Amino acid sequence: MAARMRALTGRTAFLASVGLAYLLVLAPLIAVFWVSFFRNKIIAFPPQGYTLAWFANAWSLDDFRNGFVLSVEIGIVATIGSLLIGVPAALALARHDFRGREAISAALMSPLIVPGIVAGTAVYMFYIEIETWTDVQLAATLPGLCLAHVVLALPWTVRLVTASLVGVNRLVEEAAMTLGAGPALTLWRVTLPMIRPAIVAGGLFSFVVSFVDLEKSLFLVGPGRTTLPIAIINYLEWSIDPTIAAVATIQILIISAALLLTDRFVKLSRAF
Amino acid sequence: MAKIALTNLEKRFGSFVAVESLSLDIADGEFLALLGPSGCGKTTILRMISGLTDATGGRIHFGARDVTDLPPYARNIGLVFQGYALFPHMTVAQNVAFGLEMRALDRGEIGRRVQSALETVQLTGLAGRLPRQLSGGQQQRVALARAIVIRPDALLLDEPLSALDAKLRQELRQEIRRLQRSLGITTICVTHDQEEALSLASRLVVMHQGRIEQIGTPSDLYESPASRFVAEFIGKSNFLDGHVGAPDEFVTKSGFLFRFQRRSAAVGSRAPTSVGFRPEKIEMGRGRNAALANHVEGKVDAITYLGATTEYEVRLPSLERLTVHAADSSADPIAIGDNVTLSWSSEATFVV
């Protein structure tokens, strides 16, 4: 009896702490979602009624619309760039032992460790240096911004694909070779299909980290060009009506969709 | 199908010699087993024949073709891996078709050959399944079908049955043998399981520390092992140390005289240091069997019932111990502590 009581208490305590953790994570998201439908002109409780007007308002503002389009475009470029560099890099890192392997691995992962604002400053100064040496302008240009986002996204692809490659049975690739497939065909017909979930996940993650990036982009956008997170910050400087909540809601929904989609292909917990 | 010739084949990993100057001819259509404990170099030989590992010395020929420097995909071999290594993202039919697609055959031909290979291994109903939906035995059959469908010059099996349970192993062993005979395909099987090797192959190569200990038919190896290693690795043996006295007589350290007939040529110049005889070749009774050449008296120390036979531990006056396998005689059962006489023939006696 006492044992059962103890078990029950333990279980209750466990469920309570899990519930609390979820609440801490989800409460801000739910609040933003909720506020985006308030009729109030200023974000305040209690709501004075509900409306969809803020969503229409957000779309009518050029900054948000253009920011959204630009963020999607840069996200796509970052995804493609991150896959084109990250997948071959992961293959090399997971399969070959060469001098400087650890150094290259650390360099590829460093964007995860360096604070965004520091990285943003550093990239900006680096671009300026390049410009003084070569006259090629990268700061405040679209290619410069895209390049920075590719670097930002790279660790995710490298990490996910490397983790997946480590789990691939080398004998399966050797089997393909004994059956007559050369290295290129083995890669295309056997290795890549086996790590496809990680490639898909790496791509989607790349898109998400690029899509939400604020700190690096702040330094690198040119005049008259804003990404969605920057448009949000700019808007917040002057007004705090629920438009901002509506924009955030859309952003959260897009990212959630991407993450849910990713999780269908690969259990994200497996990569870390 | 082709004769396979290995000439002075060698593999070194740094200063470690995995395979030492090994020469071996495998006849067209022969079923050869490479038998040895793990680390004896047998898998390395298989990988060198398949091209997955480079030889550091020597040549490999398939028929007249020197394949030593060819990559695995240019050798035309069928390799069945330990653990099967099926393509997890392809169906059974796609797995089997893979090698044919690499040979750029036309679709109709591929379809026909996949179908017939699946029939051979009795898997026709499972063509659309993925490997993870199959049992171990079924996966093994897919691996076999995938290897034979390309009509390889050589079929290489790496511990093909080690992942299966005993009953299934028996069943597949027979199936592999039937398949090998009907296709007449030159086959090399690597295994550490003596039972598997004895039952599958027509010729066995026993390996030890990168070298060939002995080559022979299953009965050659069992009846006249060339070394103590072979005698201990294949079956069970009694050994007594000593030296050869007369040409057909062995004197043990404890002073027994035993007549022997089996003396493998492979022993060569080295003088034999032990006499050996198999536990089941010994006749055990209250008195000696005068028809047999060798006799020794002792006391039964332990009895273990093994089902088909009973194992007796017999202690000799010299305190040496012998193992005897005999059918339990219900008329006059032998008990622990009984004095017994062991008799065996000179034909069943070998020196190593």
Explain the overall architecture.
The complex is a heterodimer of chains A (272) and B (352). With 272 residues, chain A is an all-alpha fold. Chain A has one domain: Orthogonal Bundle (MetI-like fold). Chain A is 76% helix and 0% strand. Chain A has twelve helices and no strands. Chain A has helices spanning 2-35, 53-60, 62-95, 101-109, 116-134, 142-166, 170-178, 183-194, 196-212, 215-220, 228-238, 243-265. In chain A, helix 1 crosses helix 12 (243-265) and helix 3 (62-95) packs across helix 6 (142-166). Chain B has 352 residues and is α+β, with helices and mostly antiparallel strands. Chain B has two domains: 4-222, P-loop containing nucleotide triphosphate hydrolases (Rossmann fold); 236-352, Beta Barrel (OB fold (Dihydrolipoamide Acetyltransferase, E2P)). Chain B contains eight helices and 20 strands. In chain B, the strands form four sheets. In chain B, strands 6-7-8-3-9-10 form a six-stranded mixed sheet, sandwiched between helices. A five-stranded antiparallel sheet of chain B has the order 13-12-11-14-20, with no helix packed on it. A five-stranded antiparallel sheet of chain B has the order 15-19-16-17-18, with no helix packed on it. In chain B, strand 16 (294-305) and strand 17 form a beta hairpin. Chain B is elongated. At the A-B interface, helix 7 and helix 8 of A face strand 6 and helix 2 of B.
Q: What are the SSEs and their pairings?
A:
The complex is a heterodimer of chains A (272) and B (352).
Chain A: H1 2-35, H2 53-60, H3 62-95, H4 101-109, H5 116-134, H6 142-166, H7 170-178, H8 183-194, H9 196-212, H10 215-220, H11 228-238, H12 243-265
Helix pairs in contact in A: 1-12, 2-12, 3-6, 3-9, 3-11, 6-9, 7-8, 9-12
Chain B: E1 4-13, E2 16-26, E3 31-35, H1 42-50, E4 57-62, E5 65-66, E6 77-80, H2 92-102, H3 107-120, H4 136-148, E7 154-158, H5 166-183, E8 187-191, H6 194-200, E9 203-208, E10 211-216, H7 218-223, H8 228-233, E11 238-244, E12 249-252, E13 257-259, E14 274-277, E15 283-285, E16 294-305, E17 310-315, E18 321-326, E19 339-344, E20 349-351
Parallel strand pairs in B: 3-8, 3-9, 6-7, 7-8
Antiparallel strand pairs in B: 1-2, 1-4, 4-5, 9-10, 11-12, 11-14, 12-13, 14-20, 15-19, 16-17, 16-19, 17-18
Helix pairs in contact in B: 2-3, 2-4, 3-4
